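Tokens in:
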């Protein structure tokens, strides 16, 4: 049975998914402070979700890290306020070999992501670009092992944008809300790809879709 995320203090919120050190909790607290400050100027997350920073955003993001704890090259698409990509980079702060690339097309959001990365010491580089304009180059130069996205676009669009990453051997870990079954049906079940569905542990009815290129038949 999946362990449910606890509500309450930060350590308890993360304990059921991906426990982190006291130092990393302090980095997340700095992230929270900057998010609240910047949210007054630009829309980074749903305003009503700020109070749920530790569960709705951080714990939800780290579900992906718990599924691939050994991965060292992470790519996040449409990073926005930093979930899940920047949250994963912060959680990996004590793993010096881990690299994180965040793609975001909004210049103001890129400025926020860079400030948080600097303030927390996260090994994250921010690229100000549209995904489709840089995907081929990043797939070749960065060679991501894991590609993440959360609340970004329909699965049909993500499948097309991520084609270069899938072809280079990356695994997609896509956070999807309660409408994931409908999106999956509209994609024809992702024919030609291997799919594993991980039920969400933070939001009831949500899921993380683990997708990779199907293995060639012998």
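Residues out:
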């Amino acid at each position: 049975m999946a362990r449910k995320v606890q509500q309450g203090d930060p350590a308890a919120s993360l304990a059921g998914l991906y426990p982190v050190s006291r130092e990393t909790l302090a980095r997340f607290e700095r992230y929270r402070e900057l998010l609240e400050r910047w949210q007054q100027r630009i829309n980074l997350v749903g305003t009503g979700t700020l109070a749920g920073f530790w569960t709705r955003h951080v714990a939800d993001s780290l579900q992906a890290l718990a599924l691939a704890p050994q991965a060292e090259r992470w790519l996040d698409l449409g990073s926005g306020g930093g979930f899940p990509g920047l949250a994963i980079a912060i959680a990996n702060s004590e793993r010096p070999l881990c690299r994180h690339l965040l793609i975001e097309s909004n210049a103001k959001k890129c400025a926020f992501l860079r400030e948080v990365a600097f303030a927390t010491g996260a090994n994250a580089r921010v690229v100000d670009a549209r995904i489709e304009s840089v995907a081929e180059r990043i797939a070749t130069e960065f060679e991501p092992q894991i590609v993440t996205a959360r609340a970004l676009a329909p699965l049909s669009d993500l499948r097309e944008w991520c084609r270069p990453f899938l072809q280079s051997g990356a695994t997609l870990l896509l956070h999807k809300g309660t409408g994931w079954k409908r999106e999956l049906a509209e994609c024809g079940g992702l024919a030609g790809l291997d799919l594993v569905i991980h039920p969400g542990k933070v939001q009831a009815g949500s899921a993380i879709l683990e997708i990779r290129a199907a293995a060639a038949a012998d």
